[in-house]
Fold these 2 entries.
Entry 1:
Amino acid sequence: MKTNKEKATQFSKHLFWDVNISDIDFEKNSKFVISKVLIYGLFSDWKVLVKLYGLKNIVKTAITIKELDKKTVSFLCAITDIKKTNFKCYSTKQSVNQHWNF
């Protein structure tokens, strides 16, 4: 069983710049870790995430995240059989569009 520090060192350093990485409990804070990787992670981080949580748990958690971008949702829909309309981020759009929303 890997320790939190060993798990944390597998991810890119930029993912957890705003928190103390040694304080993250990868079991209790799985939604936080999954959202960070899905929003800001690289493909290498994705591979580590799948090994750590499994695809089924990642998708189950991703459905509840409100801040996912269109590319991430499309990627998750492509590798699973879940529709875009099942994601919370799909149904709860911001009322005011962002300036850089291309």
Entry 2:
Amino acid sequence: MIAVLMGVSGSGKTTVGRILARDLGWPFYDADDFHPPANVDKMHRGVPLTDADRAPWLDALHDLIAEAAGARRSIVLACSALKQAYRDRLAAGVDGVRFVYLRGDAALLRLRLARRSGHFMPLELLQSQLDTLEAPADALTVDIDASPEAIAATIAQHLRDTRPRRGRPVGGP
């Protein structure tokens, strides 16, 4: 299973993702590590990325997801995946990809970003992410107003409850 924690900057994707991966015993990947240097530079300067900027990044992440699925390895990936087209591109042709939307209100997200240091994503770009965000209809949605540990526990329980078991049909008893 591939668990993709998605949402805007400040939603806790990396923090919750690391805890979730640790609790499940799965490897953790942060999509930020896959951005080409030009994208990081743009974001650092407060310039929103375009779909063309994101294309090679999304392709690299799709390759990671496809490789893990092909090897039957479960992973946790923290990735903004703001648009449905991005989520479709990430999961194209791969079974077992589960999106988890970390949802928070703008005030809480601004507060979190204002307190964060050492990250290339400035507070000024939050509004562009909120404007770009297409909330998923087919993802597990978890509000971010609980502790990261509680959020990770909620997600882990959901993943365990929905994971197909060998020898049983999906959705069967």
